[in-house]
């Protein structure tokens, strides 16, 4: 007897064959119909029990969450909702799930409740769909880059380099937490630590990716990054995954082309490969939308939003143009923005980005050529001396989903910027070496993976798109 | 004029076309022949300079390591060593590389020297080949699992769970390093820390992967893991990448089948996709072997070793059989082993594993059914009450490359083991929940990614197969 996954059975439909499946009980109706799921697909397999000849004690064990092996014949289904079903001839109970204590019962649980049960929530339709899409999206990302001649580069997670300054960092140490060794000045003596210096968790693999791009040409990272920011929002995690492509000889225009092509390709890949899960998630989102006041509901369904991104050009707008648009916008004139846009140089807030994307252009937007003083030191200074070749991709509902730039390839300009920021040049000796030896125009960007999973699945809280979210006060599991 | 990567040019060979390439100078001979490399392939592109009409000052900038854009016509090559070359019509220097200071000159550098220049070593043939193979091997791993119905699961990196006890851990903290807050007992008050408790870097994603396997059926992790062990060897890193598949309803035999099929498939994938790099690395290894005494040289070349693994069955041997073989072996009888094998229950050392693989069976070996007391608490106890369903895959030259087991699915047995080990059950409440609700037979294993890259590339030191190795006293870059 051949063992199948439910996805295989529903795809191949070997009607008439004796088959075996393993899975968990979703529901058991009328002492007769077991809806079995094994995680391979959102769909359950209906297993019909010959209850008149079945062992009553065994049937008592068939409750939601129990793990079963069911053998029988695959037949065309007479009932609605499925094309095939198993006429069960034997049931083996791997493990029971006491209905009194098993938390994942066949009813609606709040996302907040399920967050407390993160080890079990993936047994629900919503989370299993999200996590399958997350997996497929990961593979889409790797596939895109590998097909296009990029090499995957594992940037270091523990870093002794604290020069990027992209945010608060987590210290990594094996020193005694209570009584660390101290040096002659009474400061903690990190030369005694595991790495012989103070080390932190990385906030970005970009600088290291640049070293590889300047040898392999086209590279990308895909790894965890960390921010020790005390942000308890639906958009922030202390531990999240980031994708950072970096390409030698690409200027900012080529970088924008890459970002747009990449994003469209991976979303199309998910549309092609996760149809069932996306349909389920579309229904979930539209149910959620119905609980909102009419004027706050999205005009598009989940699939419409995804297709819209794939099918439309991203609007490319310089920061300077965007400031003009915002300054003359209704919410600015009527003082509806929390932060009014008065002059060139202002840092854009989420409300401004959303206005541009959702109200003004009504499509994804790439803003470029930002003022130098609101962007990072490594970005290429334009000939105007006041803007840098930075770009942000802005998405409806999400805001900034990609941030990137052409990098400053000129040694002297980079050294001046580092000096102006009071960064010790010695900290970046290896980064500056790239400008000393065979320097060239190069560009890259970072995509926050969980933000993209949120966009693709329609989940509103970033904690619900990663298996075990790490946030302030929470590192359970 | 179309811009090409060198890999594309050498593959498509659009002879007669005007083309443009960017890359770095490997060598410049006779003021005429530039060997250009852009990292897309191990092969250089020969660019022939019309030196009689060239700007002399420009040609002076064409030194090893300089970044150039070269335009010209692709023609069939008259010279040896290449089929096509560019007749250069224009050369643009992106960036120079002063021969007096650029460390990567066209001569043999020691691996030790290059480790100090980890940001530049990837510009050498050896390291660019290793890192391209590493990238392809990563993608092979994702491809294998995705094609076989596995879902990629990102296990958490920061963990509040310290129950696995697989080794020394790195503490992650934002508390003041010098004066951490203390509680009323004078101990460090981790409730004040970022996550409200003491947290560490993960040593394994297995326990979390199990939670996902018990919902999605077949999952795998591929992420960084950490060991704060003070091991300064050619086999150990403090930060390394690990792959951990976990499969619901798989017993130990199915787990061994999976490991063998997986390993063979990914090696075959690399053989199919990295031919040029592997041939280069084979040559490098055989040069290295020639510096060794005759009796220490490997009998097989790199490619022979890889094909051998793909084409032969892994020998499956129980621990008990292995002990018999070792006890009666010549090195044991002649007291050549450092640790003599006297009785059942002995923990096998690297010398014993290598004897079994390299001398006795002369093929990869899977040892299984180890004594319970030398293996982890979560492994399935056999009916004999003294062995567990553990397995290790042993490779020539490398030793243990995979460690795995069928997991203990019985709540009561697992609870007893946890108690015997003095682990607080509360620490593992969620792990035990898997045995309370819908438990089932399940299995998985861990593959140390860098060990596999070492095997595939023939590199002897694990520091040379990861971009920025983290080892005691070393977290540079």
UniProtKB/TrEMBL annotation, chains A, B:
Domain Aminoacyl-transfer RNA synthetases class-II family profile residue range list: 131-467
Pfam families for the chain: tRNA-synt_2, tRNA_anti-codon
Major subcellular location class: cytoplasm
Keyword set includes Aminoacyl-tRNA synthetase: yes
Enzyme Commission no: 6.1.1.22
EC main group: ligase
GO biological process, one term: asparaginyl-tRNA aminoacylation
GO terms for MF: asparagine-tRNA ligase activity; ATP binding; nucleic acid binding
Gene3D superfamilies: Bira Bifunctional Protein, Domain 2, Nucleic acid-binding proteins
GO cellular component terms given for this protein: cytoplasm
Keywords: Aminoacyl-tRNA synthetase, ATP-binding, Cytoplasm, Ligase, Nucleotide-binding, Protein biosynthesis
Reaction equation(s) it catalyzes: tRNA(Asn) + L-asparagine + ATP = L-asparaginyl-tRNA(Asn) + AMP + diphosphate + H(+)
Subcellular location: Cytoplasm
Family: Belongs to the class-II aminoacyl-tRNA synthetase family.
Record text on subunit structure and interactions: Homodimer.
NCBIfam families listed in its UniProt record: asnS, PRK03932.1
Full protein name: Asparagine--tRNA ligase
Organism, scientific name: Flagellimonas hadalis
């Amino acid at each position: 007897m051949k063992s199948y996954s439910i996805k295989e059975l529903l795809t191949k439909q070997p009607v008439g064959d004796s088959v075996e499946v393993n899975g968990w009980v979703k529901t058991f109706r009328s002492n007769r119909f077991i809806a079995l799921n094994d995680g391979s697909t959102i769909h359950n397999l209906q297993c019909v029990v010959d209850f008149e000849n079945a062992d009553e004690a065994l049937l008592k064990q068939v409750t939601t969450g129990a793990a079963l092996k069911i053998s029988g014949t695959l037949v065309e289904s007479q009932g609605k909702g499925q094309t095939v079903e198993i006429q069960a001839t034997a049931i083996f109970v791997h493990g029971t799930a006491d209905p009194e204590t098993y938390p994942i019962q066949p009813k609606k649980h709040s996302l907040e409740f399920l967050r407390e049960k993160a080890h079990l929530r993936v047994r629900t339709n919503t989370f299993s769909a999200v996590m399958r899409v997350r997996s497929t999206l990961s593979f889409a990302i790797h596939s895109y880059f590998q097909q296009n001649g990029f090499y995957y580069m594992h940037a270091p997670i523990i870093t002794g380099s604290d020069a990027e300054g992209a945010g608060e960092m987590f210290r990594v140490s094996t020193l005694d937490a209570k009584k660390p060794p101290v040096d002659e000045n009474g400061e903690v003596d990190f030369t005694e630590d595991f790495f012989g210096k103070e080390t932190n968790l990385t906030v970005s693999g970009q600088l290291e990716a640049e070293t590889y791009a300047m040898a392999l040409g086209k590279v990308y990272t895909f790894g965890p990054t960390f921010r020790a920011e005390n942000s308890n929002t639906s958009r922030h995690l202390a531990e999240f995954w980031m994708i950072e492509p970096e390409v030698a000889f690409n200027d900012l225009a080529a970088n924008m082309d890459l970002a747009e092509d990449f994003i469209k390709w991976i979303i199309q890949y998910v549309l092609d490969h996760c149809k069932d899960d996306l349909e389920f998630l579309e229904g979930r989102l539209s149910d959620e939308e119905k609980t909102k006041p009419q004027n706050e509901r999205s005009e598009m369904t989940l699939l419409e939003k995804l297709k819209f991104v794939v099918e439309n050009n991203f609007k490319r707008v310089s920061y300077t143009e965007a400031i003009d648009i915002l300054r003359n916008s209704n919410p600015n004139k009527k003082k509806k923005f929390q932060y009014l846009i008065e002059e060139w140089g202002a840092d854009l807030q989420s409300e401004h980005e959303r206005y541009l994307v959702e109200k003004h252009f009504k499509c994804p937007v790439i803003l470029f050529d930002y003022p130098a003083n609101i962007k990072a030191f490594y970005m290429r200074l334009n000939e105007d001396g006041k803007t840098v070749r930075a770009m942000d991709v802005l998405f409806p509902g999400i805001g900034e989903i990609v941030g990137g730039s052409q990098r400053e390839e000129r040694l002297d300009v980079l050294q001046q910027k580092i000096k102006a920021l009071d960064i010790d040049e010695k900290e970046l000796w290896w980064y500056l070496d790239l400008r000393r030896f065979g320097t060239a125009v190069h560009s890259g960007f970072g995509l926050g993976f969980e933000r993209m999973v949120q966009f693709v699945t329609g989940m509103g809280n970033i904690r619900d798109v990663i298996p075990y979210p790490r946030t302030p006060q929470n590192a359970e599991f």
